[in-house]
Amino acid sequence: MGDNAKFSIDGDNFEYPVLQGTIGPDVVDIRKLYGQTGAFTYDPGFTSTASCESELTFIDGGEGVLLHRGYPIEQLAENSSFMEVAHLLLRGELPTADEYSEFTNTITRHTMVHEQLRGFYQGFRRDAHPMAIMCGVVGALSAFYHDSTDINDPAQRMIASHRLVAKMPTIAAMAYKYSIGQPFVYPDNELSYTGNFLRMTFGVPAEEYEVHPAIEKAMDRIFILHADHEQNASTSTVRLAGSSGANPFACIAAGIACLWGPAHGGANEAALNMLHEIGHPDRIPEYIKRAKDKDDPFRLMGFGHRVYKNYDPRASVMQETVREVFETLKVKDPVFDVALQLEEMALNDPYFIDKKLFPNVDFYSGIILSAIGFPTSMFTVLFALARTVGWVAQWNEMISDPGQRIGRPRQLYTGPAKRDYVPIDKR
Ligand code: ACO
Asked: What is the pLDDT of residue 161?
């Protein structure tokens, strides 16, 4: 613990302990502030607030560093697999060979969904956005596992976590299949987590589907890059929903709803749409001008981040992965050139330099997902699929924390003071 933070209000002095993490900024522990002073802190958007203690993920936004349980994201993306990262986040360490085989086997054996769950899809219009379907169907999972999930039992929490991680690819692939009018494809236990997802998405019952190893590897890496990102909006949503003791499947549905927004997970869809709209490098200056114009609501999608005030390390890996996939598949997409030139121009522009706006993970992810064959409406679904690992790991960590309490922020009230009711004929 460091020196106390000194605080004075209305002439009275107070001291609050300063807590130190392993790395990262110190934290002023103001838990007693309201009780002692009668004042709240005011921090809309939580830009200066640590909402919890966590051992999972560390971000140094100034330096562009992202660590999962200490391991740099670049090393995990290069050497690891999504299942290994899932094990690391959920169970605390990279697995040994035996642990890895036990873990992947467990996940593989939970990939099927209850047959009755298939019925839920029929209730959606054909043109429903797959994220709307994800919110509904994942929420519906809570009805299948409500009585069997005692969240105070760590073993049952782990089973719920396995179910969520395992079933999410099946549910996501079914959302896609439903939207294009093709039959659902059942999981294949011979395939990897990612290979199985590709087959359920792009395979059809009428013929064999061969998983392309380069695409499988790229997709797996994309999942790694999205696995967790400390207390972002959707993760905080999952924690807040879970803090009341709610059913974990319902909590994850809440996280999916939050992720859908264009300022969060929906930005990958918006970024690719924007790149297509720009269409040609000649038009980049026009869009940069619009992004800088205070009177124009347009923003460069895939640019800027609440925490990164440097290059998002996931964006560099993503850019590299686009190159690799294009080379292997021998494809070219003019939109990639637009993206590269847009990035270069923005990074040399004083507006973006001064505000420390850099490409984030979403800037390049749409290009690669589109090359693999996903429609833009599926991009955020893939993000949700991968982030489920982080959500359940964070949810587990929260429930097992003995200091955990229901999340209940306060407010600065600016509405009318107490006044008397006026009957309708007197208003
Ligand atoms: N284009 C143009 N200007 C921008 C952009 C952008 N993409 N992002 C931020 N700015 C400007 C803002 O207008 C603001 O300017 P001001 O100081 O003159 O008012 C300043 O930079 C700070 O931006 P804020 O919105 O206050 O920063 P905040 O931390 O609240 O927002 C956010 C971060 C939401 C990510 C924002 O940068 C944005 O909207 N980016 C585009 C959407 C996007 O790519 N989202 C994905 C985030 S990553 C993820 O969820 C996986």
From this structure: 96
- Cβ of residue 264 lying under 6 Å from some atom of ligand 1: yes
- For residue range 95-109, list pLDDT tens digits in order: 999 999 999 999 999
| Rg of the chain (C-alpha set) | 23
Judge if the beta carbon of residue 355 lies within 6 A of ligand 1: yes
Residues 53 and 398: their CA atoms lie apart, in Å, by 9
Name the residue of 226, 290, 355 to mutate for ligand 1: max ligand atoms within 8 A of Cβ: 355
β-sheet bridge partners, residue 6: 15
Mean per-residue pLDDT, 234-238: 98
Find where tokens 């003995």 sit: 402
User: Mean per-residue pLDDT for 264-285?
Assistant: 92
> Residue 388 corresponds to which tokens in the numbers above?
């489920």
Burial string for 10-38 (b: 16+ CB within 10 Å, else e) reads: eeeebebbeeeeeeeeebbebeebeeeee
Gap from CA of 303 to ligand 1 centroid (Å) = 7
Annotation marks residue 276 as catalytic: no
Give the pairing of strands 57-60 and 27-28: unpaired
Measure the CA angle with vertex 250, ends 203 and 255; round to 5°: 75
320 contacts 217 by C-beta, under 8 angstroms? no
Question: What is residue 332's predicted lDDT score, i.e. its pLDDT?
Answer: 86
Who contacts 355 (Cβ-Cβ below 8 Å, separation ≥6)? 304
Q: Please work out whether the CB of residue 228 comes within 6 Å of at least one atom of ligand 1.
A: no
Which of 278, 299, 309 has most ligand 1 atoms within 8 Å of CB, for mutation?
A: 299
Q: State if residue 31 touches ligand 1 by the CB under 6 angstroms criterion.
A: no
pTM attached to this predicted model: 0.93
Q: How confident is the model at residue 226 (pLDDT cuts 50, 70, 90)?
A: very high
pLDDT of residue 196: 98
Residue range 279-336, pLDDT digits in tens: 999 999 999 999 999 999 999 999 999 899 999 999 999 999 999 999 988 888 899 9
**Ligand 1 close to Cβ of residue 302 (< 6 A):** yes
Contact 331, 371 (CB under 8 A): yes
